[in-house]
Specification:
four-stranded mixed beta sheet; about 25% strand
């Protein structure tokens, strides 16, 4: 999956992590959004979301899949 680029600003590295999150004030409980991260930015992107109470988890890229019957996940880069 080397064609997937890290979501961190100005980063051009290939992503290897899915940072799964949602804003509970905006998104339904079954909605999951995904940022992708390289090894270098995994911690900083996760910490940014965790500080705001948005982080649901971090998984290897390709593992985070939409819930069956749920809305499609949105990958943001």
């Amino acid at each position: 999956m080397s064609d997937v680029i890290c979501s961190a600003r100005h980063c051009k590295n290939p992503a290897s992590w899915s940072v799964v999150w949602r804003n509970p004030k905006l998104h339904a409980p079954d909605r999951r959004k995904i940022w992708v991260a390289c090894d270098e930015h995994r911690t900083s992107l996760s910490a940014f979301l965790d500080l705001r109470g948005f982080l649901l988890g971090v998984e290897p890229l390709g593992v985070a899949a939409p819930e069956p019957g749920g809305p499609a996940d949105t990958v943001e880069s």
